[in-house]
Write a structure and sequence with these properties.
alpha+beta, NUDIX_hydrolase-like_dom_sf, 4-stranded mixed β-sheet, Nucleoside Triphosphate Pyrophosphohydrolase, 126 residues, hydrolase, 40% strand, 3-stranded antiparallel β-sheet
């Protein structure tokens, strides 16, 4: 199992931060930012690094939201708070934006994202 983290960050309007994946798996699809935990990293360090690499944002990791398994990837998702930085698509992202529920419904999402967010009561506000 490949250890991964994902970050659920919301803006002041309750919109959720999503990225359009630049690489497989899921190239072109939208998901929460995140990625692999590197050797020697804990989840918090990996989350801070991945969020910055994919979105340009500095974050503070928060509470565990949930866990999912997608193929060989075991993904642990955490809420996080944006501390600073201009939002931009980084090295593993084609695009990055905060979305409300209507905008999210119009995007091609990675498999299982909508169900997981609904189960965790973590969907963006309408």
């Amino acid at each position: 199992m490949v250890a991964c983290v994902g970050g659920l960050a919301y803006d002041e309007a309750g919109r959720l931060l999503l990225v359009q994946r630049a690489n497989e798996p899921g190239r072109g699809l939208w998901s929460v930012p995140g990625g692999r935990v590197e050797p020697g990293e804990d989840d918090a360090a990996a989350l801070v690094r991945e969020m910055f690499e994919e979105t340009g944002l500095q974050v503070t990791p928060g509470a565990l939201v949930g866990r999912v398994v997608r193929g060989p990837y075991g993904i642990v998702d955490y809420r996080c708070t944006v501390v600073s930085g201009p939002l931009r698509a980084g090295d593993d992202a084609l695009d990055a934006r905060f979305v409300d529920r209507a905008a999210m419904a119009a995007l091609p999402l990675v498999d299982g994202l909508l169900d997981a967010l609904a189960e965790w009561d973590a969907l963006p506000r309408s």
